[in-house]
Amino acid sequence: MAQQTKKRKDLEKKVDAEKFYSPSDAIKLVKELATAKFDETIEVAMNLGVDPRHADQQVRGMVSLPKGTGKTMKVAVFAKGDNVAKAEAAGADRVGAEDLMEDMQAGNLDYDRVIATPDMMGVVGRLGKILGPKGLMPNPKLGTVTMDVAKAVEDAKSGQVQYRVEKAGIVHAGIGKASFSEADLMENFNALLNAVVKAKPAGAKGKYVRKLAVSSSMGAGVKVDLAETDAI
Predict the structure, then answer these.
(1) pLDDT value of position 102
(2) What is the pLDDT of residues 62-102, one digit of tens each?
(3) Cβ atoms within 10 Å, residue 79
(4) If DSSP codes are grouped into helix, strand and coil, which group holds residue 15?
(5) How is residue 43 annotated by DSSP?
(6) Strands, E, within the chain: which ranges?
């Protein structure tokens, strides 16, 4: 254990806390720092010039990462009738109606995405206090309230991630795993950054993306030079 700690400290010395790295150099360094025994997630943190307390400064959306997430997404779908078979065929892990609502009320919330058809929102609405804080509440703006449940499930399973600004004006999102190639992580990084830039709300004033850092699940953050990003 002491040897592992020393190894990590030696690796983290490679990170210059005052330096701003190009995106490719940052990703390369973060991959080197990802020495845990599991395949760490590579994460991006963006400080945005918004105040999420104001309705016109919300930043939220979905983006499909071209190289996927490296994570198996567990998806629940609220549907009835023909849509049940469609959701199941697309790979949904659980499909239901009132029974699924009761299961979630009992505390079974081990899902990464919850999707619903519009006619099921009366049932889903009763779960607002449970799903809302977890960022799982189906939302038509995010494509998770839809009649096309098959596409929504396929999108979730194929590498679509949700981003959402937190109270402090920060967006966190994963762009893949440490086992991904640098090229694949860069492609996903650019896709996420482009999506967040395009989602700039009307109420945002001044500089929009103010700080940007990349890290692994267990590693130190590496600051990115915004001047060297393609999207800004």
Answers:
(1) 97
(2) 999 999 999 899 999 999 999 999 999 999 999 999 999 99
(3) 23
(4) coil
(5) E
(6) 41-48, 60-64, 75-78, 94-96, 113-116, 160-164, 170-177, 209-216, 222-223
Instruction: Fill in the amino acid letter for 29.
Output: L
- Give the contacts of 5 (CB within 8 A, at least 6 positions apart): none
CB–CB of 145/77 below 8 Å? no
Residue 218 is classified by DSSP as S
pTM: 0.83
Q: How many CB atoms lie within 10 A of CB 10?
A: 9
Using an 8 Å Cβ cutoff, are 140 and 132 in contact? no
Q: Kindly give the parts of the chain with pLDDT less than 70.
A: 1-13, 230-232
- pLDDT tens-digit series, residues 99-113: 999 999 999 999 999
Rounded to a whole number of angstroms, the CA Rg of the chain reads 19
Characterize the bridge pairing of strands 60-64 and 209-216: unpaired
In sign, the C-alpha dihedral spanning 108, 68, 200, 49 is positive
